[in-house]
Design brief:
Blueprint: E1 2-7, H1 12-24, E2 28-34, E3 54-58, H2 64-73, E4 78-81, H3 88-93, H4 95-117, E5 118-119, E6 122-123, E7 128-134, H5 158-177, E8 181-186, E9 188-190, H6 199-208, E10 213-216, E11 222-227, H7 228-241, E12 247-250, E13 255-257, H8 258-272, E14 282-285, H9 300-306, H10 314-327, H11 329-337, H12 343-348
Parallel strand pairs: 1-2, 1-4, 2-3, 4-7, 7-8, 8-12, 9-11, 10-14
Antiparallel strand pairs: 5-6, 11-13
Helix pairs in contact: 1-7, 2-4, 4-5, 6-8
The protein binds nicotinamide-adenine-dinucleotide (NAD) and thymidine-5'-diphosphate (TYD).
Thymidine-5'-diphosphate binds near residues 198, 202, 215 and 216.
Keywords: Lyase, NAD
Cofactor: NAD(+)
InterPro entries: dTDP_Gluc_deHydtase (IPR005888), NAD(P)-bd_dom (IPR016040), NAD(P)-bd_dom_sf (IPR036291)
Length: about 350
Amino acid sequence: MKTYLVTGGAGFIGSNFVLYMLKKYNDVKIINLDKLTYAGNLENLKDVQENPNHIFVQGDICDKELVTGLFEKYDIDYVVNFAAESHVDRSIKEPEIFANTNVLGTVNLLNCAKNAWERENGWKEGVRYHQVSTDEVYGSLGETGYFMETTPLDPHSPYSSSKAGADFMVKAYFDTYNMPVTITRCSNNYGPYHFPEKLIPLLINNCLNHKDLPVYGDGLNIRDWLYVEDHCKAIDMVVRDGRVGEVYNVGGHNERTNIQIVKTVVAYVHDNVDASVTEELIKYVEDRKGHDRRYGIAPDKIKEELGWYPETTFEVGIVKTIQWYLDNRQWMEHVTSGEYQNYYDKMYN
Ligand code: NAD
Ligand code: TYD
C-alpha cells in the first residue's frame, strides 16, 4: 500500500488525479488536503466518497500544525502538490494570495515533509515530494521553438512568478538537503471539472447560455492544450519512476490560437446542440495585461525516459470535454451559482 498526500485534490486537475489513481490502483491510499476555496468542489469527488482509500481533509497547505499532524497520523510515502491559486486574471488583481498559497504553502509542505522523512544518514526509503508546476514559468515564446527543461525561467504574471518561486524552493530542498523531489511543468489542461473562469469551460458555458464569448486582444495568442487524463498519467509515472531532482515538461502537441479554440467550440455546439449558437457571439475585448503570446512544449524527455506521450488529440479531447459538460449541466449550475459551497456541509457533516 502506498500512501499519497494529495493537496488541492478537490480542484480541477487534483480531482481528476484522485479519481484516476483510485480507479487504476487498489493499493493506493489518498489523503486529500484541500482548503475548498471557490475553485475546490467536493462534488468532483462524489465517485470516491465511499471509497475507504480516500480520506478528505479540509484545510490549508500553509497550516504547519495541520500538515505536521497529517504526517504523524498517516505513513505518507508521496506528496503531490496541486494546491494553488491558479487563475492568471485573478493574480493580476490580487497577487498576495498567490504568493501566500503558491510560495509559502509549498515551503510549508516541503518543510513538514522534511521533518517527517529526514533521517540521520539520509532519507526514509522510497519517499518523494512532487511539485505540479506550469510551463508558464518559462515565460513566452516567439513564433518558433519550444520550452525545454533547460529553458531559463522568465515568468511574467504574478501567478507564473509565484509558481516559479515555488519551483525554486523545491529545487533548493534538493540542492541543499538532497530531498527526493521531482517537478512536472505542464501546458494548459482541459477536460471535466474545469472551473468556468478558464477559457474552454467558460466558452462552453457561455455558448450553452447564449452569452458573449470574450476573446482577449487579437485572439492569436497560442496555448498548447493537454487533456487532463493524459496529464494525470504523466504525474503518476513521474512520481513512481522519474529521476529524483529532475524536471519533466508535459505537453499536448496541440498548439492552437485562442480564436481557433473559440471557433471549434462554437462549431461543435452549433452542429450538435443548438443551431442558434454562431460566431456572432464572439466579442473581442481588451487584452490581458502582460499577456504571454505563446506557450509550446516538446515533451521529449518524459517520452524518452518514461515512455509517456499525449494520447488524446485535441479533436478527440474537445468533443469528450464538451460532451461531459452537456451531460453534467447540474455541476456547471452548482459551480456558477455558488451552491456547491454548501455541498461539504451536506455530504460530510
Ligand atoms: P484549481 O484552481 O482548479 O484547483 C486548485 C485547488 O487547490 C482547489 O481545490 C483549491 O480549493 C485548492 N487550494 C487553493 N489554495 C489552497 C490552500 N492554501 N490550501 C489547500 N488547498 C488549496 O487548479 P488546477 O487547474 O486544478 O491546477 C492544479 C495545479 O496545476 C496548480 O498547482 C496549477 O498551478 C497547476 N497547473 C494547472 C494548469 C491548468 O491548465 N489548469 C496548467 C499548468 C499547471
Ligand atoms: P486561461 O484559460 O486563463 O489560461 P492561461 O492564462 O493560464 O493560459 O486562458 C487561456 C488563453 O485564453 C489565454 O491566452 C487568455 C485567453 N482568454 C480569452 O481570450 N478569453 C477569456 O475569457 C479567458 C478566460 C481567457
